[in-house]
Design a protein that fits this description.
five-stranded mixed β-sheet, 9 strands, 2 domains, globular, Glutaredoxin, single chain, alpha/beta
Length: 151
């Protein structure tokens, strides 16, 4: 899984800048040219772990659709799905944000989305659910399903 940092590209010089997740809603400065960075123009190239405290901030502020993986450490299908999500995040990093929510550490968020079985994948756009998948899918099947919702 990812290191729980988001990234953005500087519109002035094109440099890739790392953003701590807790600062996703803030405007920063480029590490190379010091120009202002857009506050909402972030992405991740790997799935990131999201706590209940940061869930709404990340999913509502994301300029891209967010695929939420509700999982648990003891779940074998969740472990099987993890490399598929890693690959999907790498392929669609600038168009889709993949986040992971451990249902045992974030039971309120899981309950809010009515998660009754894991793995459950919920696709959000501006924090609003647009699709739901229960169970593990292959990479081609998941890619096809997600691509229908990308701009």
């Amino acid at each position: 899984m990812g290191d729980n940092h988001l990234f953005t590209r500087c519109p002035a010089c094109g440099a890739r800048n790392r953003i701590p997740m807790e600062r996703a809603a803030q405007v920063g400065r480029c590490g190379r040219c010091r120009e202002a960075l857009p506050a909402r123009d972030f992405y991740a190239e790997t799935p990131i772990n999201v706590s209940e405290l940061k869930f709404d901030t990340i999913t509502r502020l994301s300029p891209h659709p967010v695929l939420v993986d509700f999982w648990a450490a003891w779940c074998a299908p969740c472990k099987q799905l993890a490399p598929v999500l890693d690959q999907l995040a790498a392929e669609l990093g600038g168009r889709l944000l993949v986040v992971k929510v451990n249902t045992e550490e974030a039971p309120t968020t899981a309950a809010r989305f009515g998660v009754r079985a894991i793995p459950t994948l919920v696709l959000l756009r501006s924090g609003i659910e647009v699709d739901r998948i229960t169970g593990a899918l292959s990479l081609p099947a998941l890619r096809q399903r997600v691509l229908t919702f990308l701009n």
